[in-house]
Task: structure prediction
Amino acid sequence: MTDRRDVPQDDDTQPIDSSFFSPAPQRQTEWASASWTAPPAHPTTPEHWFEPTPRPAAAPVQPKPADRTGTGVGTILAACFLSAALASGGTFAALSATGAFDAPAAPVSNADPTSVRQPVTIDENSAVVDVAAKAGPAVVRIVTGNIDPNALELPEQGVGSGVIFNPNGWILTNRHVVAGSDSLTVELKDGTRHPGEVYGIDTLTDLAIVKVDATGLTAAGLGDSDALRVGQLVVAIGSPLGTFSNTVTSGIVSAKGRSIQTDGANLRNLIQTDAAINPGNSGGPLLDASGVVVGINTAIARDSTGIGFSIPVNLAKPLMEQALAGQELQRPYIGIRYEDIDAQLAKDLSLPVKEGALVSTENDQNGNPPITRGSPAEAAGIQPGDIITAIGQTTVDGEHPLDAVLAQSSPGDTVVLSVLRDGQPATVEVTLAVRPTNP
Result:
């Protein structure tokens, strides 16, 4: 069985070129002057397209002249009132005789399909205000310095964002914000500055952890990124352009499970959002309407408007736990190259399932086999063409891709993989290794 295209690898992340994400070396912003032009004399787009077309005024109705020879108006009205009184009296007497007035009133039914339900109004503006007030103090600006001993100019500076996840000075940010820096300065919302150091770099995603020597800081709460729904309100906070600290923007979750190719790296399982994210926002939090962190803003699509990406916070939680325990940041490693199965791939290759992870059957363009030699996958007997359908009790699908599920385990853990081999179900036990920096 041959693959229809090059397949991603669970362990092929390369160092990320920070020029794709980070603002250029800090300098005075040049502002373009605004020019105002008069509207064209004959605009081609009428401004009233969405307004109702006015109808011609109807001709006034002329009152009909009164018939001077007929019966007087007073006489006619008196006769009408008398007839109505007599008729109602007779109707009342008839209904009383039948006992109609003694019957109990019919209950009002709430199941009437024609009843109108009152809409529930959600004040999103108020939600954004509350999120900004709650989480804003936990968002920091990170200024990095890169010193070239052979350069004659001043050291270059890069600026990004971060979020405090523990009051004792623990900060989550992007790897590309701090990678290769010689110095770090962390600035709190109130303007207080602390020197920082990189505690660890993630080998799987674009994440890093920074530590400052401070206590009693305001920390943000952590949410559940798996529970996010497309269309849900989200808020981004950061320092766009490295200048406008604690800028708040809002939008929605546009999509989940996105994969993008950046300069030198593949980023997978991302949250797509239309909340405005600009250079300098990298490393800042994406928050839900309750004010908890659901993602870390990491990238924007070039030549686009409203297409930004965040790393789900659930992928970052194992790293934060390791840092608080004083451990080295490590990711589990299995050592296979695979492709996520979708309906089209299943159709093209006549696969027995429409979800899962298909282990590649061919070497990559560099001649590397789909199962890395000496890897946990090879030791466990995983074979090219195997379809991994579950890890433990978690089904591998679009919402739970293989690498994201594995990321919830730790190196040294033994996990049970459910696989289909030649259409027959089987289970394979794999003891996870430590993911190398450059696998």
Q: What stands out?
A: The chain has a mean pLDDT of 78. The CA atoms of residues 343 and 354 lie 5 Å apart. The first helix runs from residue 73 to 98. The radius of gyration is 34 Å.
